Amino acid sequence: VRCCGVWGVPAVTVYAFSQENWSRSRDEVQNLMALLERTLREELPVLVEEGVRVSVMGDMGQINSALRDAIEKAVEATAGNDKLRLSVALSYGARQDIVAATRLLATKAAAGLLDPDDISEEVIAEHLSSRLLPAKIREPDLLIRTSGEQRLSNFLLWEMAYTELYFTEKMWPEFGETELRSALHTYAKRNRRFGHRL
């Protein structure tokens, strides 16, 4: 996050905990939640000082009260910051997000509040969790996938239609400034066409 702020990257979204992660053992889930809470509380002064604005997307209904409290404090304390947007995907799944948006649109249409012919990509996007971000940074330019995995893992499926993908064998805890610099250098050499022929 510090490197991104210094290098002028306007937004970062991290996949902290997926919907699928709830199927892990109770002890592992509790340990992950405690780690997330501790990290948020410990890093908050630095985030405030460095101008980072925190937002969280996902199903907060399953999150314990201590972590929810830490999230609320971080979001509130950083609300006025504008150097870097840090979005944390927590208890998040893209398929679940798309289903929730679809249900809400169907409910609005059934109630006569929305004409089905008015449903567009933009309308759908306004009903996804990423709507909390400014429109110009909702769709990531680059996905960095660590740990040797080469899949999206139910992360921002709608938003990543034209996202460039970068895969590395490095595990997340070891992924640091050198690796980030390499990923950004690789990205900078790519020719993004967004489906158009150049």
Jot down its keywords.
two-stranded parallel ribbon; 198 residues; alpha/beta; 6 helices
Short description:
This protein is of the alpha/beta class and 198 residues long. The chain is 39% helix and 16% strand.
Report on the architecture of this protein:
With 198 residues, the protein is α/β, with parallel strands linked by helices. The protein has helices spanning 2-7, 26-49, 65-77, 94-110, 121-125, 177-188, and strands at residues 11-18, 52-57, 84-92, 142-145, 164-167. The strands form two sheets. A three-stranded parallel sheet has the order 1-3-2, sandwiched between helices. A two-stranded parallel sheet has the order 4-5. α3 (65-77) links the parallel β2 and β3. α2 (26-49) runs parallel beside α3. The chain is globular, with a radius of gyration of 18 Å. It starts with a helix and ends in a 10-residue tail after the last helix. The mean pLDDT is 93.
